[in-house]
Each structure stands twice: as structure tokens, then as C-alpha cells.
Amino acid sequence: MDPSVLMSERRQLINLAYRMLGSLAEAEDVVQETYARWYGLSAVQQDEIENPAAWLTRVASRICLDVLGSARVRRERYVGEWLPEPLPEQADWAAPADPADRVTLDESVNLAFLVVLESMTPAERVAFILHDVFRYPFPEVADIVGRTPAACRQLASSARRRVRDARTPEAPPTSPDRRADLVRDFQAAWAAKDIGALIGLLDPAAVAVADGGGIVTAKLEPIEGAEQIARGLLEITAQLPGLTVVARTVNGQPGLVVRENGVTTTVMAFEFAGDRISRLYAVRNPDKLRPWA
């Protein structure tokens, strides 16, 4: 197979692996291992593969399945809360990304959606992403996951229930324009140290989750309640006079980037319920902020 055609599949594989793992670094490792296995085949073995693109997808997915299994064990030892690795728009990358490594920033990489994926079993997550996001038929999913097509349908169905259960049923969907307005107003209220405005923008039952990975300071447990979150944000401002907050797109959605003396230290993503912010995700682990450095 023409090497240029073979490598053209790289972007598809990066997109697939990032959604499965929630980590660009791990996704890149998976894709590298996938190609290593391809080039480890003899020329005769390569020629016997009728559809190299499908072979690459199958191998990458199986590697992801293995990584997810070991990741569950690693995350049990993780210090504090674990959040997915946030991604900027291409224009905001610290160093230009290779076009083959660009992740398509659609609803399936919304940070809140990736957090829900973390609640799934490895098999549920792989089956759901392959079928519901990338539209692979269940017989192909079954070959990858090592289950029957019927079992994979059940896995995908269970994953969909998890997604539905994670939504706030009472609140109507928040339009993209309204999301942007809420984040902009939140940024302005935080800059103005207006605790009343902050509380008003947050759902009374809002939850804030921070991920410092044990490397930098972060709350080890989620903060619950609008007033508690607002007071925590103002405490941060008081402790860090050199802090600036700028609006940026995070995983395709309106978000904020916090900088201390010009250095990006936190990337914030949001989840919405009607006209309020229901969840705030603050990624502080510097290992997850490489594209934002």
C-alpha cells in the first residue's frame, strides 16, 4: 500500500483514540504503536490485508481497550479528581500541530461529554464510540471488542443510558450563543470580584471539579454549591494578584484560560443547564496543558 495513503489514516486514528482515552498524549502513543505493528508485518502479510485502513482502526481500537483497562487501575491511584486533557482551537496551540494530529472539535469531544465517557466500562466506551460516534456497524465493533454483535448492541445501549442519565432533565438545552454569553458574563463577574453576579450565573446545585494531578495545588474533592464555588474563585483571585482570565475555545466549546504572570496554569470548561452554569471543570495538571503552554 502507498505509504502516503497509509499515513493519511493517521488523523482518523488520532480522533478515534482521543475520544476513547480522553488524553491526546495517550492517543498519540496508541497511534504510534498501531503503525509500529503495521510496519512490523512482512510485505507478504501486508499484501494479504484487504483493507489496511480497517486493519489500522481495529488494531488501534484494541490497543485503546487495553489502555482503558490499565487506566482504570492507574486512576484509582490518581491524586484528586481525574479530568480529560483539554484541547484548544488550532490557532491557539502553543506549537502548530501537524495536520495529521488535529482532533476534530465537535460535540463528541466536549469536555463534559468526555467526563461522562469516563464512567463507562472500557468495552462500553469502545463500542459506543465506534458505533454511535464513528458509525461502525455492530459486526465490525464485535470483531474489535471480542463480543457478539448482540452483546455490543447492549454495550452501546448501556453507554447511551449513562449519557442520558448525566444530563439535567429539568433544564432546556442551552444554545451555543447562550453558552458563550454565560461564559463571557462569568469571566466579567470574576474579574470584577462580583460574588453576587457569580452566584447568579451558577446553578444553585453547581459542582466544580479541579484536576491538579498531585503536581499543583487543586481541591481534591469537588466543590458543591454556587456560593461555595464563587467564594473559592474569589479566594484564588486574592491569593494570586498576577492572575488573568481570558476567553478561549476549549474542546470546541466556550471556556476560559487562567494565566499567572503570562503562564497558562488552568484551562476551564463548563457544562450548562438552561440559563446557568451547572458544572465547572478546571484542568490544572501541567502534564495536560502542553498545547496551551
Features:
alpha+beta; 12 helices; 293 residues; 6-stranded mixed sheet
What does this structure look like?
This protein is an alpha+beta fold and 293 residues long. It has helices spanning 3-7, 10-21, 24-39, 43-47, 52-76, 111-117, 122-133, 138-145, 149-166, 176-191, 195-201, 226-239, and strands spanning 202-211, 223-224, 243-250, 253-260, 263-273, 276-283. The chain has a 6-stranded mixed β-sheet with strand order 2-1-6-5-4-3. A hairpin with a 2-residue loop joins strand 4 (253-260) and strand 5 (263-273). It is globular and about 70 Å long.
Write the layout of secondary structure elements.
Layout: H1 3-7, H2 10-21, H3 24-39, H4 43-47, H5 52-76, H6 111-117, H7 122-133, H8 138-145, H9 149-166, H10 176-191, H11 195-201, E1 202-211, E2 223-224, H12 226-239, E3 243-250, E4 253-260, E5 263-273, E6 276-283
Parallel strand pairs: 1-6
Antiparallel strand pairs: 1-2, 3-4, 4-5, 5-6
Helix pairs in contact: 2-3, 2-5, 3-5, 7-8, 7-9, 8-9, 10-11, 11-12
